[in-house]
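PROTEIN DESIGN WORKSHEET
SECTION A - STRUCTURE
LENGTH: 255
TOKENS:
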């Protein structure tokens, strides 16, 4: 479980996040949604420690992460898996080398153990016979799956996914969502997904927090979101649904 208490972030006198408190539950897919510029990316980076909050605290379990020094934070970071928006694979490394990289950094496994763990994670995300390929030789969807394999290779307690469906077609996006949810259940991780994709919200949004202008404006699950009386949330949901339908229509005309 991760708990955020009264988190505020100010950049050059501009309040980007203001007094956000929430709990992200273990074994569930917890989604942060909001328009571009709403503050959701800053919140995600504040939780993982890439940005230092101006005020407030972030707890991993019962540990106050914001109060730890650099060395102490490293122990928590070993328990974190991160799926970046652009996959962030090393272009000069093979698929196998990319997934194995955290094992080199944070474990004392033998080479045989590292290969076994790497192959297990690649198989878990349905990537086979690609170990010796380079990122330039695989599709965008496969890159995301390889990046997800790397994110789980250390069997993390916490999994963070930043816009995991960015740049993917709808069918591949659904596959990525299902993988994230399955892995969350299988390994009982605390998973936080930063997204603006309403298909993801409706598909895997077991707990959803909507941020508007840097503040928490709504919280619930994907069963409640369509019946909310929150005006800003309704505008966000409607605008995203319309945009997705338009993209589908255009894709249909181009096929």
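SECTION B - SEQUENCE
RESIDUE ASSIGNMENT:
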């Amino acid at each position: 479980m991760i708990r955020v208490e009264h988190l505020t972030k100010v950049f050059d006198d501009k309040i980007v996040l203001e007094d956000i408190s929430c709990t992200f539950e273990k074994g569930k897919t917890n989604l942060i949604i909001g328009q571009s510029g709403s503050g959701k990316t800053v919140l995600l980076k504040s939780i993982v420690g890439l940005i230092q909050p101006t005020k407030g605290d972030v707890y991993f379990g019962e540990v106050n992460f914001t109060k730890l020094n650099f060395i102490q934070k490293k122990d928590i970071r070993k328990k974190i898996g991160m799926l970046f928006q652009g996959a962030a694979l090393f272009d000069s490394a093979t698929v196998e080398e990319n997934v194995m990289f955290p094992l080199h950094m944070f474990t004392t496994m033998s080479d045989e153990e590292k290969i076994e763990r790497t192959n297990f994670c690649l198989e878990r995300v349905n990537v086979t016979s690609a170990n010796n390929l380079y990122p330039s030789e695989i599709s965008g969807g496969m890159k995301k799956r390889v990046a997800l394999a790397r994110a789980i290779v250390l069997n993390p307690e916490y999994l963070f996914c930043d816009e995991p469906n960015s740049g993917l077609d709808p069918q591949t996006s659904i596959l990525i969502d299902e993988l994230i949810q399955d892995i969350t259940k299988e390994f009982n991780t605390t998973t936080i997904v930063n997204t603006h994709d309403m298909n993801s919200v409706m598909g895997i949004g077991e707990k959803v927090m909507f941020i508007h202008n840097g503040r928490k404006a709504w919280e619930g699950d994907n069963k409640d979101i369509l019946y909310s009386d929150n005006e800003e949330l309704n505008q966000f949901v409607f605008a995203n649904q319309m945009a997705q339908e338009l993209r589908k229509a255009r894709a249909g005309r181009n096929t």
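SECTION C - NOTES
The chain has two domains: 1-79+160-255, 85-155.
The first helix runs from residue 40 to 48.
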